[in-house]
Structure formats: structure tokens, C-alpha cells
Amino acid sequence: MGKTARLLPLVLTATALLPQQPSNDPSYQEIPLDGVSVQAHTKPYGMVGITWPEGVRNVAAKVRVEQNGKWTDWQSLSVEDDHGPDPLAPEGIQRAGTEPLWVGNATGIQASAVTNTGTTVSGAKVVLIQPGVLSSDADDPGEIGAASSASPYPMPLMVSRRRWGADERLRAYNGADCVRPRYTTTVLGAFVHHTADRNDYTRTQVPAMVRAIYAYHVKSRGWCDLGYNFLVDRFGRIFEGRAGGAQLPVLGAHTASYNANSFGVAVIGNFDQVAPPPAMLESTARVLAWKLDANYRSPSATIRLDGKSLHTVSGHRDTKATDCPGTQLYNKLGWLRQRVNTLMGGSFATPIYRYARQLGFRNIGQPFWGEHPTRTGWATYFATVDVFYSVATGPHSTAGAFRTRYRRLGAGSARLGLPITDAYQVHGGARQKFQRGWLVWDRRARQVQVVYGRAL
Length: 456
Fold this sequence. Notes:
24 strands; 5-stranded mixed β-sheet; 29% strand; disordered N terminus; LGFP repeat-containing protein; PGRP; 8 helices; Amidase_domain; 3 domains; LGFP; alpha+beta; N-acetylmuramoyl-L-alanine amidase activity
């Protein structure tokens, strides 16, 4: 922190005013904000944020932008101190900052960042991101489909990272430790967020907005990847967030200290004063229902994370003092829990779940890869066993060396088929029967062999 704030802005040398046209080329700019404000003409950008060194608290930040030769009114930026990774996560050199604001297309910036006592913030930067335009931005995966009554609740239609244009090379920006996704033990619950952005964006702008948030989280904040596991736009479209497999318990960076064994869903917009649209709420309920049902978690239950008792479906503000996910969205969390419960059918009734209960969750551990379809049936991967099911075979599990070997074949292997027994002991080793063959453990050879055919 520096001296008492001055009233006049710090003026940078202005570049020539560029044409007000969307750019096809991505760009990333950081402008030092060492005074109370900075004023400059810039090349076109679509998203703006302000960052400062980690540890500085109680910062008030605001911006106004130049669009079509005119300056907008000043707008405060949301400051969420506890958005981000868990303290021990390998998320690079972190900087504190605002939530980014989508401005569509602008060619100038004025910004201010001061503490609540009116002093300047040393080391602050204004970040301007142009995510560029991709031909796929105009693609539309369509409206949300009809609700399904299948059990477990199916994975909803989702815009993949590849489809929204994620540059996977960016995950190496903060070091080699960031390249490989990190996973938690299981999924216990979910946190609902809002991006504190604007609400009047168009369909074709959303992929660019997601790319810009991704760049801001990585380059500006120092995180490994986009912080949220999923995002939902106002049209009801779901976007895959952090890399690592949407079906798996990927460690996110959405609710500091509470990311382990949870996932974060961010709705794109600001819902402090405005209610979220029905399509957005319905799609949020569907992604919650899919993840919770697959991991056998009731939306009506309570859980414990980081020593705190929380609802299975919680808002960001349930963990710390924050406005997120906005009062109007937070007031809808009760409806979301009820809707998720309805989509899930009110209880868990799948053959795999019933079989797992017979084995005992204390014995097999928690779900890691929740119940999902395979090429020949269904499967859930628990901590110590994998359970498979089809109508023809019933539920059976693989464990130990048999599980390892079966996974290498491609669990649910079409050639070997699903297990039709559990492993059992025989003279000299153990074996397990599958639809079209066997896995055989030879105690002397200390390895598992694959034997195709019905007889052995």
C-alpha cells in the first residue's frame, strides 16, 4: 500500500485509437496501475480485470471503458478474496484480484484500485483480454432437452473444452506441476457460484467469455486452469470447465479450502439484483443431479468439508463472507435442491448401488468414478474395487491384481466381456470368470493371465 489516494488519474501515453471491430486474434495485456487510476486507449479487448499482490485485503476496484468513441459510466468490480485453489494446491504464483468483467469490445480503459482507507495498492495491474473469435463460436448445441427419468440420472448435453476453444497449452503456463489434472477422493457436494459478470451477453459471445475467464484465471491469478468445474449460461447451455474429465472428481479452484471432494458450478452473470432465468436454473439442476446421483449423494443431506457442516448443494457464501453467488441466485438454492432430488428420483436404486451396500462402503471406499455407462453395461469405480453391471451378468466386482489387469484391457472390454463371478480361490492361485473368458492369477508366476473361451 502506498500514499493517500490522489483525485486525478495517472495518464499513460495513449496509442492511436483503433477501429471498433471484433478481433480474430487473441491478445493479453497487463497495464501497471501504480496510481489511483490509469487512462489509456488500447487495442480492442473483450474482458477486463484488476489484480494485485496476494495478501492485500479490502480493495475497492472499478473501471470504465471506451466503446465506440464514448466512455461508459464507472462500474465496480466484484472482489472475491476466497475464490481460488486450496492452500496446498499446485496452482502457481497467485495474485489476488477482482472477478473479470465481460465488456464485449472496447478500445480504452480507465481503472482504479484503492483500499477502504483510500490508499493506493502497490503492484496492481489492469488486465485486458481479447479471447479472439473462432468459427465454432457461432455453433449452437441447441436448447436443453427433456428431463430424463433414467437411473442413474444421465450426463446432460455439455459443450466440451475442445468445442469452446480451450488452448490446452495454457495449462503449462504456471509450470509442469499444472499440466496434469489433480483429483480428489470422491464427490461429496457442490458449490454454486456466479461469475459476477454482465447478463446481456449473446449466444455467440459465450465461448469467447469462457476462453477469457480461462486466460484470466491462469495468466492473471496464477492458477493451473479455469477454476470452475462447470459453467452454465443464461440460455441453459452447460460448459465443461477445468480439464481432467467431467465424470471424475477433478480438483477445482472455485472455493478456497473447500475444493477437495466438491465441484463448482458457476452461472455466467451477476445475480445480486437480477433473478437467474429458468433455463439457467434447470440446466444447473441437471448438472448437479448427474454428478450427485452418480456418486450416490443426496441433495437434501448435509456434509462436512474442512471441518464445516454444509448442505450437499451450497452457495459460495456458505463458506465465507462473500456476495457470491448473488442474493437472487442464493435464494433459489432451496428450489435447486428440490429439483435435483426430483430429477434423481428421490433415492438410489441402481443394482450397482445395492450391490455396493452389500459389500459395505467401509470395505470398498467411496466412489471415485461415479456410476457411468460402459460399452457393455454400467460401472462405478470405488476406492478398492470396480463394480460392473449389465442385465445379462448382474453386478460383480474386480479387485486387486484382477482390477489392474482388467483396466489395462479397457474395463468393460468387448472381447472379454463383463465379469459373471467375483474372484475366487483355486489350487495354485485364483481366477475370475467373464462373459467370454477368464482372468487367472498364477501364484508361482505372480501375474494375471487372460484366457479367452468359456472352458478352463
